[in-house]
Design brief:
By secondary structure, the chain is an alpha+beta fold. It has 2 domains: about 160 residues, Double-stranded beta-helix (4-Layer Sandwich), CATH 3.60.130; about 130 residues, 4-Layer Sandwich (Double-stranded beta-helix). The protein is about 25% helix and about 25% strand. The strands form 6 sheets. The chain has a 6-stranded mixed sheet with strand order 2-3-16-6-19-4, with helices on one face. Strands 10-11-9-14 form a 4-stranded antiparallel sheet. A hairpin with a 6-residue loop joins β12 and β13. The longest helix is centred in the C-terminal third of the chain and has 14 residues. The chain is globular. One of its GO terms (molecular function) is 2-oxoglutarate-dependent dioxygenase activity. InterPro entries: AlphaKG_dependent_hydroxylases, TauD-like_sf, TauD/TfdA-like. Keywords: Antibiotic biosynthesis, Dioxygenase, Oxidoreductase.
């Protein structure tokens, strides 16, 4: 899929940004320091919506998972009902989305297309890219506020219908639902208010209806919380609808009543994201903690080798 380039502000200076916490002077191991400072770390995320921990001594993926479980206070979540390719490692740690290095991943709140999403996310930079490869952020509260009122009201009133067709073009259903069983897929869909239909050619189609705007359970603020701009047909190869037919697109987004979303509206949404996006160049061993409802994340295109891992917890509905 073609992705839109984002424009990022560089806020990399730890001397001027209180959301970067330089811990390089700590003599304790990364895990020991985290265990001694759990409340303060969570206070940072509650206060600012995210926190970048820089300079901790972290020696393994297992240590990263233990650090996240210590901070989040629970086991990490499995990633089911996926929308992008990634590799599962131990203890519910995953690689970040494995799209080709020349692609930009648009801003999004994780699993905002689903009725179950993580409230907390943690990213770990094992190897920073040679160039690019940042994980840009944007404040979902500001996205909501800066969208034109008429557009915002239209989405808020009508909601969104996400349509997915699973097969060779996009992820197969076996990977998305992490099962080989059609019965398991149907049970998951029933439990999560997803309409599913099997076709004679073996293709699976799902439809899910979700709000475009949510209220944060702690702050009480409205946030723009959806992936209409990522699922919309304008985000895929422009020649794909003619070659396979609009009904067979791997994914698309409509208003909740089935009405088409105008490309011009998607363009406005993407522009607001671009206007609000900023990034911190990754350094080795950085840990970025996010409130997944308050902040979106994405990925810049990059060169060289890049390895960033992610873990999620505190499921919400």
């Amino acid at each position: 899929m073609d992705q839109l380039l984002s424009t990022d502000m560089d806020l990399s200076s730890a001397e001027t940004d209180q959301r970067i916490h330089d811990l390089s002077g700590q003599k304790q191991s990364g895990l020991a320091w985290v265990k001694a400072n759990v409340k303060e770390i969570n206070d940072w995320v509650d206060r600012d919506g995210f926190a970048l921990l820089r300079g901790l001594n972290i020696v393994s993926t297992n240590q990263f998972s233990t650090i996240l479980e210590t901070i989040f206070g629970e086991q990490l979540s499995q990633y089911i009902y996926r929308s992008s390719p990634r590799t599962a490692l131990r203890n519910n740690i995953y690689t970040t989305t494995e799209y080709h290095a020349d692609q930009v991943i648009l801003q999004h709140n994780e699993n905002a297309y689903s009725n179950c999403w993580p409230m907390r996310m943690g990213f770990f930079c094992v190897v920073p890219a040679k160039t690019g490869g940042d994980t840009p952020l944007a404040d979902s509260r500001e996205v909501y506020k800066q969208l034109p009122e008429a557009l915002r009201n239209r989405f808020e009133e009508r909601g969104i219908m996400y349509v997915r067709n699973y097969g060779d073009i996009d992820l197969p259903w076996q990977e998305v639902f992490q099962t080989q069983s059609r019965d398991d897929v149907e049970a998951y869909c029933w439990k999560n208010d997803i309409q599913c239909e099997w076709f004679n050619d073996g293709r699976l189609q799902t439809r899910q209806f979700r709000p475009a705007v949510m209220t944060h359970p702690q702050t009480g603020e409205k946030v723009w919380f959806n992936q209409a701009h990522l699922f919309h047909c304008s985000a895929v190869d422009t020649e794909m609808p003619d070659s396979i037919g609009a009904d067979y697109l791997p994914r698309n987004a409509y208003y909740g009543d089935g009405g088409e979303i105008a490309k011009q509206d998607i363009d406005v949404i993407n522009q607001v994201y671009r206007d609000l996006t900023f990034s911190y160049p990754w350094q080795r061993n950085d840990i970025l903690l996010l409130d997944n409802m308050l902040y979106t994340h994405g990925r810049q295109a990059y060169t060289g080798t890049r390895k960033v891992l992610v873990g999620m917890a505190k499921a919400a509905r």
